[in-house]
Write a structure and sequence with these properties.
By secondary structure, this protein is an all-alpha fold. The chain is built from 21 helices and no strands.
Length: 473
């Protein structure tokens, strides 16, 4: 079971991580070619806004699809009902934004570039149409097809953006409304999202006009708290970048966004894990050993996540030269270890959130997520003008830590899972302590950092060798 889960997670990881790695690798390219940090702040801000829009449009239906498809008698009806609902949602949104794009651009302070708003409406439209087909691939254990489409989209998008920057004469982009270089990634994203929709058409064509109203009501009752929780998550992830553009200098906001991209390597690991594990959680919920399996998976995640977090922090000294080539952006480097550890806690929270999803108590997810969001909002609004962008990083860490702790205690009350608490706390504490010593005391020296990393790996292997032997048997 765990071998199958691991192999699928690795394949999903390719589909989730490789496109983002490609985007990540383009980060220094954008820094070199945009007209300063202000342009980079504009770039980061628009993507922060569309991520919030996507949460609203998808309405938590993806998770509801997994939950209700677990009942074989309702699998087909769940697929049809989910897709029809999201398609209508996406179409309504697209029409409204195309009609009111100029007023929206004025409100968001993009009055000189309303075409950005129209492009992002098309991106959100096509991405929403792809949600259920991608979920169908995950639920039906087709990670290769899933990853192939994701990677294909990313390669096409990357080739387009590189072509616009490097090979196409500047006169041509202007003929299609690309007046500024910051617009090139947006336009390429539209084409990439359209390509994803086309590649997923064979699955979309499986949809039948069978909208089950009774099932839809049950799905909405289950999903709307997830949507609200997702909105809170987007606040935790993106409010800092949005508010910084208004409350601190554009240069500082751009430096923060550029450094955050490097810290987001940890997010890629968490995302790949989530793609493989979410269908697994629901498929196992009726198994007699479900709680034991949930505990084991969480333990494995903490071990793997701690190793990756420590590895990133240990190697920041040379990673910054490779991915953030403009030294002026390095003023924000100190946020990276904080954001890396914050995302480790978010991954732990995701594991600990299993209890309210499999027991249909999704409203608890809303409460927990909004407690985290309120922490993010208050700390940024009250302290950002005083302490600068560092407070945004600390707010993210505090929010995710509190969410993980709350989810654990509530989960143990309503759906107790036998986690090995002492072992998990040992791995986490050791990871954080070694990270602090490496980055702060030894000034991010990568030799010392990697000595710590190798020591951590050796200790982990020594502790887990009996489990590894059982796993091999």
């Amino acid at each position: 079971m765990f071998k199958k889960l691991l192999s699928e997670t690795i394949i999903y990881g390719i589909g989730a991580i490789l496109p983002r790695v490609i985007t990540f690798l383009l980060n220094p390219f954008y820094i070199d070619n945009f007209e300063g940090a202000d342009d980079f702040a504009k770039f980061v801000n628009l993507y922060a806004i569309i991520s919030v829009v996507n949460i609203v449009l998808t309405f938590g239906i993806e998770t509801a699809y997994f939950r209700f498809s677990a009942n074989k008698d309702e699998e087909s009806k769940t697929f049809n009902t989910s897709y029809i609902f999201l398609a209508l949602n996406a179409l309504t949104f697209l029409v409204l934004v195309l009609i009111f794009n100029k007023p929206i651009a004025n409100v968001l302070d993009y009055q000189e570039n309303p075409e950005y708003i129209r492009w992002f409406a098309w991106i959100a439209f096509f991405d929403t149409l792809c949600v259920i087909p991608f979920a169908w691939l995950r639920f039906n254990n087709k990670p290769i097809q899933y990853s192939a489409i994701r990677v294909g989209q990313s390669i096409l998008q990357t080739l387009l953006v590189l072509g616009l920057f490097l090979w196409v004469p500047m006169e041509f982009p202007r003929t299609i409304g690309l007046e500024e270089k910051v617009a090139y990634p947006f336009f390429s994203n539209v084409i990439g999202s359209l390509a994803g929709f086309v590649l997923l058409l064979p699955i979309a064509l499986k949809v039948r006009p069978n909208f089950d109203v009774a099932l839809f009501k049950r799905m909405i009752a289950y999903s709307w708290p997830i949507m609200i929780a997702g909105f809170a998550f987007m606040i935790n992830e993106n409010f800092d970048k949005i508010v910084q553009r208004l409350m601190i200098s554009p240069f500082d906001a751009g430096a923060y966004g550029g450094s955050y991209k490097l810290a987001a390597l940890m997010t890629l690991f968490v995302t790949a894990y989530r793609l493989g594990i979410e269908p697994y959680f629901f498929k196992q919920m009726e198994h007699k050993d479900a709680k034991k399996r949930y505990a084991q998976v969480t333990e494995y995640f903490v071990v793997a996540g701690s190793i990756i977090a420590l590895g990133l922090i240990a190697n920041l000294d040379w990673l910054k030269d490779l991915f953030i080539r403009d030294p002026s952006y390095w003023i924000a480097l100190d946020i990276i270890p904080i954001i890396v550890i914050a995302n480790l806690f978010f991954g732990i929270y995701y594991n600990l959130s299993t209890w309210y999803k499999v027991t249909d108590r999704t409203h608890f997810g809303t409460y927990i997520s909004w407690i985290g969001a309120i922490i993010t909002l208050l700390l940024n609004l009250l302290l950002l003008p005083i302490y600068g962008f560092m407070i945004s990083a600390w707010a993210t860490l505090i929010a995710y830590f509190c969410m993980a702790v709350l989810s654990y205690f509530l989960g143990q009350r309503y759906y107790p899972i036998p986690y090995k608490k002492k072992k998990i706390l040992f791995y986490l504490t050791l990871c954080v302590v070694l990270s602090v010593i490496s980055y702060v005391i030894f000034d991010a020296n990568y030799i010392i950092g990697n000595i710590f990393l190798l020591s951590y790996l050796g200790m982990t292997y020594y502790i887990e060798k009996r489990s590894l032997k059982l796993y091999e048997d």
